[in-house]
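comment on this one:
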Amino acid sequence: MNNLHYKINKQSIQISGLGLFSKEPVVVSIEPNSTKGITFVVNKESIASSIDLVSHTGRNTVLGNGKESICLVEHFLAACSLMGVDNVLVKSNKNELIFNDGSAIHWKEVLAKGGFQKAITQKHDLKEPIMIKDGDKAIAIVPASKFKVSYFMDFEHPALGKLYASWGSEEDIARVLRARTFGTKIENDFFGVSGRLLTLLDDRFNMELYEPNEPVYHKILDIIGDLRLSGINPLEINMHVFGYKSGHTLNAKLARKLKEMFSAS
């Protein structure tokens, strides 16, 4: 699925597509940021990509400054992290970013078209392991020689079940960026997108997966995007991230721990 339109100017690149929540055209422009970091702008209100501004971590990660909010930031932040992108201003005409097919591959395309991609060179060593639990869910990080994410999914559905995958920083980023999110038919029916997004039916998905572990790679995508809220590109940290049935809420808690760790150094 690709109903996107691009417009390239001297100082920015613009992408437009249908919004998931608003069901209206969402227009996003990306340009160099004069200040450090990734900043979102909605109705002239600036919202920094900071863990301190996270207002919601249900089915997506939402940032807000008390006046405006921006939804679905995790896929964009993951693409920025995987492509070495920093210091960009992201302006949206709606309180959401473009969802497209539920992956981040469209952000890879727009960032590449705009010439924002850079090599990832700076590295930080993890000082100590961290583990965060919530019932039977957990996420942890341990020191490693390079960045890597491993995820174990245990989902009571015939099309999923127990799945495991790992991705390291020396591997192809497209495998993570193309991985689509999925929802139940009830969830996707609510937004009117069951026919065009990856949807769980009674015993299968409504469309073919890129690979059997695609749902796990999407969880890895979410982890990378959410950890970017620590203020550091997670791919710059020599660590191995382990997720077990974890989601945005635990990812955000880990991002806060990372921010505290490196702010204290």
